[in-house]
Amino acid sequence: AEAEASAVAGSPQLAAQADLETAAASRARAQNGRRAPALSLDGTFRYLSEIPAFRPTPLAPPVEMGDHRNYSLGPTLAWTAWDSGALRSSVQSFSALAAARTNDRVGAERRLRLSVQLTYFQVRGSLERLRLVADALRLAQAQHADIDLRRRAGAASREDALKAHGEVLARRRTL
Predict the structure, then answer these.
(1) In what helix (H) or strand (E) does residue 40 lie, and over which residues does it extend?
(2) Residues 6+ apart with CB under 8 A from 124
């Protein structure tokens, strides 16, 4: 459990998945915010070097159509009254994307936990194999010592002693 918690806390992949999940949820909220009316303040200023003129008759003096300086300032209220469901569909799409990102993060976390568990059991299995090989080496050494004592007493042959020595060397190499 400690290894799992440590792996989950320090995983850059899970952190990236969480950031993607947060971003998708934010996009869904932002898209949903477009449904409300928008109030803004607009302003423009323009200076015209040439002002167009209009002559009502060829003999009449020209009438200028405006001034050199033009400006406008005021609030603007905009709201989409009808969009054939495009905005609602895009909100649903981004909400589904956010749910998918959540599922991606949960899946990545499960995969990470399973990977940590698998590694833990592989290490435990390796330790058990190491313990068994060490036990086999101790047994081979004890048998070699016994055969060596019997050979000195004349109860075992040199061939038996060499086989026991070869077994000890093979177990050491395996260990």
Answers:
(1) strand 38-47
(2) none
The answer to whether 25 and 105 have CB atoms below 8 angstroms apart is no
Give the pLDDT of residue 107.
95
Asked if residue 28 lies in contact with residue 91, where contact means CB atoms within 8 angstroms, the answer is yes
Structure confidence at residue 77 (pLDDT): 77
What is the C-alpha separation between 138 and 168, in angstroms, rounded?
9
pTM (2 d.p.): 0.56
Q: What is the pLDDT of residue 70?
A: 76
| Rounded distance between C-alpha atoms, residue 173 and residue 33, angstroms | 71
The SS3 of residue 66 is coil
The runs of H, that is alpha helices, within the chain are 2-9, 12-33, 86-153, 158-174
Q: In the beta sheet, which residues pair with residue 47?
A: 69
CA angle, 110 as apex, 106 and 112 as ends, to 5°? 115
Cα–Cα distance measured from residue 36 to residue 16, given in angstroms and rounded to the nearest whole number: 31
Q: Taking residues 10-32, what's their average pLDDT?
A: 91
Task: Extract the tokens encoding 118.
Answer: 């698998």
Question: What is the per-residue pLDDT across 54-67, written as a single tens digit (0 to 9) for each?
Answer: 888 888 888 888 77
pLDDT at 114 over 90: yes
d(CA 64, CA 18): 63
Burial class (CB in 10 A: 0-12, 13-18, 19+), 122: exposed
